[in-house]
Amino acid sequence: MAKKGQYIYEYKHPAVTADTVVFGYDGKELKVLLIKRGEEKEAGTSAYVGEWALPGGFMDVDKDKTIAHTAARELKEETGLKLSVKDFKEVGTFSDIDRDPRERVITVAHYALVKLAEVQADTDADKAEWFALEEVPRLAFDHNRILQVASKHLRRDIHFEPVGFDLLPRIFTMPQLQNLYESILGVTFDRRNFANKMKRYNILAEVDDGTPRRGTRTPIRYRFDKKNYDRLKESGFQLEF
What we know:
The chain has 241 residues and is α+β, with helices and mostly antiparallel strands. It has 5 helices and 10 strands. Strand 1 and strand 2 form a beta hairpin.
């Protein structure tokens, strides 16, 4: 019997989940955070136990204000990473009828950028690890497809948002910045041309920490100038390489 205020419909309701592609950068290559699925402690059934997957899980309909809150909660529970809901960018909804063997599940996928950090599995995850994109194994559910879509969004967004700077340390060198953009876009830039273009955008500020430079072999260090970037963005600016 339905509780007071509870609606009963003729049609069954699908479950809703959030899955997140978390990108990190180790100074050499772009990486993605994966979890190894364990037994589901709060469910009567399990799926893909022992296989690698993206962090994610079911929406708590009583507590999660938005699907981004679900993504943030599940990420923290499964890997220990604590992000704000503002850190998640929605990349799409995946609703194929057979995408989850347990029941009809619709997932809303996101991606997030973090500075590479230690992660530790918890709740339904047996392990959490960073993988280079070229070394990602076959994933549970349709997570390889979600990763592919999220990577495409990242490559697009890098022209409109300062996403690269979210992955670098606060102070960085031009070679570090170039290597990151090459990793994301899958291309190789001419060193001098890349540096000249980035300097012309006026979104990098040189950092003088008092350390003497030893000729041209010691790279100049920079920080990201967000004020200038925001000013350019208001005028319709986008990064071109």
